[in-house]
Each structure stands twice: as structure tokens, then as C-alpha cells.
Design goal:
This protein has about 160 residues and is an alpha/beta fold. The protein has one domain: Rossmann fold (3-Layer(aba) Sandwich). It has helices at about 20-25, 35-45, 60-75, 95-120, 125-145; strands at about 10, 30-35, 50, 80. The two termini are about 25 Å apart.
Length: about 160
């Protein structure tokens, strides 16, 4: 796997998404499944780019997404989403404050709902299922807020 200044890496959830990150300029050898994400991100450095077909492939919930994007931005790593281009950022074009605040609000609200579920009298299985459903719903809402035609859109 290539490493160096301004290298592009891609994270995909399934093989059907590989073509999207390839169209984003990621070399085949730098595309990995979501299971190897930690390994890839730990080897990235400032100036590198992380490309994903959609934030749904990258994070399991709003809080997870917010934390990952904060980590990338804090380390000077560019982020590109093929489906939600309004979430893309770089050192030259940082994420706008309203976007960051919107993501933080989604993450905070998701976390509050999950804490409420965890403190409820539901059995463990129901708590787990409901928490996963909450995460899924918040990710679906983020996608709706920031979705576009992605890579198909002219000028993207």
C-alpha cells in the first residue's frame, strides 16, 4: 500500500463500491474494506486523502462520524465523500463551521438518545437493537441533509 505525501486511500463497505472510489482517483492498491480502516488511517499523514463512497460506508452513527472527521481534520488529512460532497474538506478548504456544528448536533442528540435507552428498564437485547436503530436513523438523516448526486454531478 502506497504511503507518501498526497496519497489517496479509499474505504469501501462492499466490493460494489470500489468503482466509486476509483473514479475519485484512488489507486486500486489503496482501496481497502471497512475492516482495515483503522490500519489505513493510522498510516496516513497530513496531505493524504481518505475517500469513501458514502459516509454510511465509513461510520456506524453520527457520533462515530463526527469523531472520525474531527480526527482526520486534526491530522491534516483530506476527506472526500462521493455521495455527500458537502462533507468533504481539506487543509485548503476546511469544513465550514455550520456543517461542523450540524454534525456535532446530530452526534450529541444521537448520544443522548442512546444514553436514555441504556438507562431504561429494557432488556439488554432490546437496548442493543434500539441503540443500533437510533444510530442507523441518525446516519440516514445525515445522508439526507448532505446528499447530492456525488461523483455523477458535473463539476464535482
Amino acid at each position: 500500500m502506497a504511503k507518501g505525501r498526497n496519497a489517496k486511500f479509499g474505504i469501501v463497505y462492499h466490493d460494489g463500491e470500489v468503482h466509486v472510489v476509483r473514479k475519485m482517483g484512488v489507486p486500486e492498491q489503496n482501496i481497502v474494506g471497512v475492516g482495515r480502516m483503522s490500519d489505513v488511517v493510522s498510516r496516513m499523514s497530513a496531505g493524504d486523502s481518505l475517500c469513501v463512497p458514502s459516509v454510511k460506508s465509513f461510520a456506524c452513527g453520527a457520533y462515530d462520524l463526527f469523531c472520525k472527521l474531527q480526527y482526520l481534520a486534526g491530522n491534516g488529512i483530506e476527506f472526500q465523500s462521493g455521495n455527500e460532497r458537502y462533507l468533504s474538506f481539506s487543509a485548503i478548504k476546511p469544513m465550514p463551521l455550520p456543517t461542523r456544528e450540524t454534525l456535532r448536533d446530530f452526534a450529541t442528540r444521537e448520544e443522548e438518545f442512546i444514553k436514555w435507552v441504556q438507562s431504561s428498564r429494557l432488556d439488554l437485547k432490546s437496548k442493543t437493537m434500539l441503540s443500533n436503530k437510533i444510530r442507523w436513523e441518525f446516519m440516514a438523516n445525515i445522508v439526507l441533509v448532505f446528499e447530492n448526486n456525488g461523483i455523477k454531478k458535473k463539476g464535482n
